[in-house]
Amino acid sequence: MASTTDAAAKSQDVEKVNAGPLTSSQGTTSVADVVVQKIAGLATREIPGVYDLGGGAARAFSALRERIPGATASAGQGVSVEVGEKQAAVDLQIVVEYGVSIADVARSIRRNVISAVEGMTGLEVVEVNINVGDLHLPSDDDEEDASGDSGRVQ
Questions:
Q1: pLDDT for 50-78, tens place per residue?
Q2: pTM
Q3: Which long-range contacts (CB under 8 A, 24 or more apart) does 134-141 make?
Q4: So what's the pLDDT on residue 139?
Q5: How many helices (H) and strands (E) does the chain have?
Q6: Which of 132, 36, 119, 44 is nearest to 85 (CA)?
Q7: CA dihedral 68, 95, 120, 61 (to 10 degrees)
């Protein structure tokens, strides 16, 4: 009889260990994909050397949205996530500044995203995949400024 009680106590301990911070005897907490997406996007933008997130089409759409009064850029642009009950995986598409070490930027992004997502949600981040889709050159800013000055109304 004592061995049955010990076995039951051990199985309860295992269940408590495997339950994670989002599950308790008082209920469960689920985190929506969009929440993890926004956290990862904001954490990525905090890293020096990251110019923007998203592919060419997403960045063009964002530029149009910024011209609409009252519209804001999407915090989740360039970020896709998979969220389970206990774990999350993050895929990022970024544009880096010319002259920075892409390897160093990627390391910093991974560290910051994992820290932010795990700290805010309690989910374990199993991977952060980074796709560097473009390189921002300083001359790109000069072309944007010149095209902005050539408007009909001054």
A1: 999 987 655 555 555 556 665 555 677 89
A2: 0.71
A3: 134/56, 134/95, 134/96, 135/95, 135/96, 135/97, 135/98, 136/51, 136/52, 136/95, 136/96, 136/97, 136/98, 137/98, 138/98
A4: 85
A5: 5, 6
A6: 36
A7: 20
